[in-house]
Amino acid sequence: QRTAATLTVDLNPKYDWEPQAGGVIEALLPRFTAEEDREVVVRLLACLLVLTRTAFAAVAPRDPEALRALVLAGLDLDRADGPTLDLSDKALLPCEVAPLLEVLVGELARREAAGEGLAGRPLRLNLGGNPIGPHGVKALREAAPRLPPLRALDLWGCGLGAGGALELAELLATPSRGGATVGAHLEELYLHVNGLGEAGGRAV
């Protein structure tokens, strides 16, 4: 109980050093070792599952115009450290990633047609702090062939887990626009606060 009281149950902590909800389970489970503790553990897991489902059910996905506004606000092709789409801490839902990437593809095509595009430069993509999970990474993988090469990919605190790590491993091996794999161009990859686990870490 003392351990639980000192930990946050925030599913998407604001700071890297704050444990996610999974950290609460990780800290508590070793203390429930007796057979009679089994019910306590099951109830703890069930409550966390209900909390997650309730949170997602309470939030309506953004409409296309709202997603377009996010892309326009976060896209900076003249940034000093390279063209960047910064969507960190925008409370993106897993189901919003695919339509958001569609907006990005369309906006980059529009700018290239106007002579204001990437001109062959790779893109920095920051999705950090959004609980997009494995589903969001899958959407990124499926959109990769139509996206420009990525120089940096920031996925800190995205709730990936081992499943997201497996999706990410496939993403890195997926060809981006131009033919080379996503991993071939990538120079920076941020994955902290994701609970990838040993299997997920090996996969990546």
UniProtKB/TrEMBL annotation:
Pfam families, alphabetized: LRR_6
The protein's name: Uncharacterized protein
Organism phylogeny: Eukaryota, Sar, Stramenopiles, Ochrophyta, Raphidophyceae
InterPro entries in UniProt: Leu-rich_rpt, LRR_dom_sf
Superkingdom, natural source: Eukaryota
Organism: Heterosigma akashiwo (Chromophytic alga)
